[in-house]
Amino acid sequence: MIIELKDIHFSYPTLGAESGDSHYALAGVSLRISGNETVAIVGASGSGKTTLIQLLNGLLEPTRGQVSLDGETASYRGDFALSWRRRVGLVFQFPEIQFFENSVFDEIAFALRNIGVDEVEIQKLVTNVLKELEMDDMRLAQQSPFRLSEGQKRRIAIASVLIMDPEVFILDEPTTALDYNGVQVMRSIVKRFQADKRTAVIASHDMDFVHSVAQRIICLADGKIIYDGPQRQFFELKDLLTQAHLDLPRVLKIERVLKERGQLKAMTKIPHPMD
């Protein structure tokens, strides 16, 4: 699947603002996301990350510009829109936004029931996705998703999207409220998409996670793309990191300190997690 954005501008309505006075959350954004890549969208708070991923998923319609899927101009209504949101799954930063049902099982099964999947197949699919997320406890499956811990809520929101087997999987701040084990589960999910040659898009402040999974980085500042390219080069651009108010991943900080102290041989390098 190929998603392409051309000269996208987006502004949120501002109460009392005159026509043309609205501030653009995104201004002049053009990009192409193809199959079989893991893309991290990074930048400071307010840079436009969440707006951008909702445009990729079709939840927002641009103020100006064009979005296309596989070369076809996007439509925000009818069968095209329904197909788009099935093919491009989005997990919000705050999982409660996605919850509809009174039990974890019913929450994960919600979308499958909407499209008429048989209950026997639903039981199998829900069991499998809970096992993948290391939450395969049937007592948990009967609890209310609203009463879970923040980390558990995030996993349930992810399960409700994963179960639809999307071609593109979008995660907004996926490691928020997760402990070490939860982050490792999240990393394994992204790695599975890589192994299946599908696309994952991650909007995140967590540079350690980004460094461990992303192949490509799109960096935003003030609603504009200031970098779009390979991950390895991105973390070498000190001025750009400063402009975007981002820090180095911890492993690269350690590598830098060791080099400055002369404790890392000239030809030695800490292995990259993508190798």
Unreliable runs, pLDDT <50, ≥5 residues? none
Number of domains: 1
CATH class: Alpha Beta
Work out the helicity level.
25-40%
Please identify the structural class as seen in this structure.
alpha/beta
Name the assembly state. single chain
Radius of gyration over C-alpha positions, nearest whole angstrom:
20 Å
CATH topology category name: Rossmann fold
- Shape by Cα distribution: globular
C-alpha termini separation: 25 Å
Q: Give the percentage of residues in beta strands.
A: 15-25%
- Please identify which CATH superfamily we are dealing with: P-loop containing nucleotide triphosphate hydrolases
Please report the total strand number as a whole number.
10
- Number of helical runs? 11
Q: Which CATH architecture is right?
A: 3-Layer(aba) Sandwich
Following the backbone from N to C, one meets helices and strands in this order, namely EEEHEEHEHHHHEHEHEEHHH
Write out the strand line-up for the largest beta sheet, numbering strands in chain order.
6-7-8-3-9-10
Mean pLDDT: 87
Largest sheet: 6 strands, mixed
